[in-house]
TrEMBL record, chain A:
It comes from Halobacterium bonnevillei. Residues 286-400 form the ABC3 transporter permease C-terminal domain. It is a multi-pass membrane protein. It comes from the Archaea. This is ABC transporter permease. Pfam families: FtsX. GO terms for cellular component: plasma membrane. InterPro entries: ABC-4/HrtB_transporter (IPR051125), ABC3_permease_C (IPR003838). The chain crosses the membrane at residues 32-55, 277-305, 326-355, 375-396. It is found in: Cell membrane. Keywords: Cell membrane, Membrane, Transmembrane, Transmembrane helix, Transport.
Automatic annotation (TrEMBL), chain B:
InterPro entries: AAA+_ATPase, ABC_transporter-like_ATP-bd, ABC_transporter-like_CS, ABC_transpr_LolD-like, MacB-like_ATP-bd, P-loop_NTPase. GO terms for molecular function: ATP binding; ATP hydrolysis activity; transmembrane transporter activity. SMART domains: AAA (SM00382). Keywords: ATP-binding, Nucleotide-binding, Transport. PANTHER family: ABC TRANSPORTER ABCH.1, IMPORT ATP-BINDING PROTEIN. This is ATP-binding cassette domain-containing protein. Residues 26-242 form the ABC transporter domain. The keyword Zinc does not apply. Signal peptide: none annotated. PROSITE patterns: ABC_TRANSPORTER_1, ABC_TRANSPORTER_2. GO terms for cellular component: membrane protein complex; plasma membrane. It holds the Pfam family ABC_tran.
Length: 409, 242
């Protein structure tokens, strides 16, 4: 056993000297190309994996603070954010309060969507108006509701006699259409009552959640219900629930008959970036990088092995077994792979940076790729896999032609 | 199969080596047939070599000298007949066993030295000891001692490129001697050296033989063969000295 270990250590040392000689003297360019080939393969793998992990991360963020939408049966996730005029739920404030009281629910808010006319300084536009029970962090149709007074003051236990806030938060799309800014007064024309004045509490970036420039306004639910005459049965289109419990979906499905539950990950843009895509990307990146790496190394080192055929014949003649020669060859390929792997890890970091920079020029504050520390291990493992897959071919090359023929020439 | 001669470290009996010409070009044919005739490089060779004996092999190019040396060095196996090396029939051994036999019992010296150009003389000589799993310090001690024996004690750290042809051949001989082999096989060992350097190389073979190592030398060169106890002459693969 000790003899084998000594032999293995010595062969690794010998392999290192042979590699160093190639780099310094006999084939510096070809050896450099081998190392760069491995580095390129590793960098490619890590960059694609970085994108995959970033995509998978989006899913996990949604999963750690899941938003559930309780919607009437038949609503599809694609129509969910702008569901106007479909089947509605009743008694929604009570249901929302009951859900919010659960320890595993961060907040629950009924959401009513209406298409209403908003006017400001002579400009009148149709805008999607959402009524909500405001909570810090609640975002509806891409509009953050933090600027609204928390809760739904006008509702006051179903009497609709509470204080009228007259607050509305509008998306920047609506703001641009109406030329409205915070503190401006906008007139909202309801269906059941005369027009009411609202104060713009904030203009927010409607690009969030993919709504872009769609004109959206968000106000308290009871005030929207009052405007639209929906106070009698306290109705809303959907109920949004933010929960930390990943298993709450079944409970929510039982809140109303003929309802279904949709998660945030099923909606909007996130639906195209699910974990399957991340897995497919990672697998494709790994396979492509592996093929590129193996082809590079097989080609360049194949030439080296052919050039060195006298070396292999000499070692065989002086008594090196086929196993020792294979180990020596693997030591050389492994050392080159290690150097290429380290370089690839650095290049991969640069690739991720480049990808984020390139996308960042189009979409601000967007990370399309990440580079966790585990990628160092992944890169080196990738390089090792390239070495392992290439060695059999190189070994076959060393056995081509007999020792006696090689030493005669 | 006939047994080896009692005292012989090396023996051949009715050894024939035939090469199938054009094999590489025809092996994918379903019947493996070649349109070129086989070549018999050696035919019906008998010989024995005893410890401490120097056997010379002479003959013109293509006479079969190298083929015979490859068989005696366990680099190749005969098509028919038997070769016994230290009592072991090479035809019965696997490739791995023949490699071990070369490592333990045979030192081979080539006309072109075949040293590893990146390694200093000391590491070149120590190469067979790497395969034996000898620890670094021990193998360097052994290699250094042999280099002193061949007169290169002061040139241990020099790479082949920094050594003359004669010095390189001495390094090659030291590499062959470092495992203390029973047999040294040398193919044209002075072929690339001047007369004076060649003479000094031959002294090393004589010294090895004096230590009971059997030496088999193949050469065209009469002065080289002059150190041999016996000379076997080949022509067209057959012995003509008998």
């Amino acid at each position: 056993m000790r003899e084998r270990l000594t032999r293995a250590r010595s062969l690794v040392g010998l392999g290192g000297r042979l590699v160093a000689q190639r780099l310094r003297q006999t084939a510096p360019r070809r050896t450099a190309v081998t190392i760069l080939g491995i580095a390129f393969a590793v960098a490619l793998c890590l960059t694609v994996s970085g994108v995959s992990v970033a995509i998978a991360d989006q899913g996990s963020v949604a999963g750690s603070n899941v938003d559930y939408w309780i919607v009437p049966e038949g609503e599809s996730s694609s129509t969910l954010p702008v569901s106007v005029g479909g089947p509605r739920f009743g008694d929604v404030h009570a249901v929302g309060d009951r859900l919010t009281s659960r320890s595993d629910v961060v907040y629950a808010s009924p959401v009513s969507m209406q298409l209403l006319q908003l006017s400001h300084r002579g400009t009148t536009e149709y805008v999607i108006v959402a009524g909500v029970v405001a909570h810090d962090g609640l975002t509806v149709a891409g509009v953050n509701t933090s600027a609204l007074t928390p809760g739904d003051p006008h509702y006051e236990n179903g009497t609709y006699d509470g204080p009228w806030t007259g607050e509305v938060v509008i998306s920047d799309g609506a703001g641009a259409l109406l030329n409205a800014t915070p503190s401006d007064s906008v007139r909202v024309r309801g269906q059941a009552t005369s027009t009411r004045e609202f104060t713009v509490a904030a203009v927010t970036d409607g690009g969030e959640s993919g709504f872009g420039d769609v004109p959206v306004a968000v106000m308290h639910l009871s005030e929207l219900q009052t405007l639209t005459g929906a106070t009698a049965s306290d109705t809303a289109d959907q109920i949004l629930v933010a929960s930390t419990n990943p298993n709450i979906e079944d409970d929510l499905a039982g809140v109303y008959d003929h309802s279904s539950v949709v998660t945030r990950s099923d909606t909007g843009l996130t639906s195209v970036t699910d974990s399957d895509l991340a897995l497919a990307l990672a697998a494709a990146g790994f396979i492509v990088a592996l093929v590129v790496g193996v082809l590079f190394v097989a080609t360049t080192l194949g030439l080296e092995v052919t050039t060195d055929r006298r070396l292999w014949a000499t070692l065989s003649a002086i008594g090196f077994s086929a196993r020792s020669r294979a180990f020596l060859l693997f030591a050389q390929v492994g050392l080159l792979a290690l150097v290429g792997g380290v370089l690839g890890v650095v290049l991969g970091r640069f690739g991720v940076f480049a990808a984020n920079t390139a996308v960042g020029t189009v979409f601000e504050n967007t990370l399309v790729a990440v580079y966790p520390v585990e990628f160092v291990g992944l890169g080196l493992t990738m390089a090792l896999v390239v070495a392992v897959l290439t060695t059999p071919y190189l070994l076959w090359l060393t056995t081509r032609g007999s020792v006696t023929d090689t030493l005669k020439t | 199969m006939s047994p080896p001669a009692e005292d012989a470290v090396l023996s051949c009996h009715a050894v024939t080596r035939t090469y199938t010409r054009g094999h590489q070009h025809t092996r994918w044919r379903s019947n493996g047939a070649s349109d070129r005739p086989d070549v018999t490089a050696l035919e019906d060779i008998d010989l024995t070599v005893e410890p401490g004996e120097i056997l010379g092999i002479k003959g013109p190019s293509g006479s079969g000298k190298s083929t015979l040396l490859h068989l005696l060095g366990a680099l190749d196996t005969p098509t028919s007949g038997t070769v016994h090396i230290t009592g072991r029939p090479t035809t019965d051994l696997t490739a791995r066993e023949r490699a071990r036999l070369r490592l333990d019992s045979i030192g081979i010296v080539f006309q072109r030295f075949y040293l590893l150009s990146s390694l200093p003389a000391l590491s070149n000589v120590a190469l067979p000891l790497v395969e034996r799993g000898v620890p670094k310090s021990k193998r360097h001690d052994q290699a250094s001692a042999v280099l002193h024996r061949v007169g290169l004690g002061q040139r241990q750290s020099h790479t082949p490129g920094q050594l003359s042809g004669g010095e390189q051949q001495r390094v090659a001989i030291a590499r062959a001697l470092v495992t203390d082999p029973a047999i040294i096989i040398a193919d044209e060992p002075t072929g690339e050296l001047d007369t004076e350097t060649g003479a000094r190389i031959l002294e090393l073979f004589e010294a090895a033989a004096a230590d009971d190592t059997a030496v088999v030398l193949a050469s065209h060169d009469e002065p080289t063969l002059a150190i041999a106890d016996r000379v076997l002459e080949l022509r067209d693969g057959e012995r003509i000295d008998a």
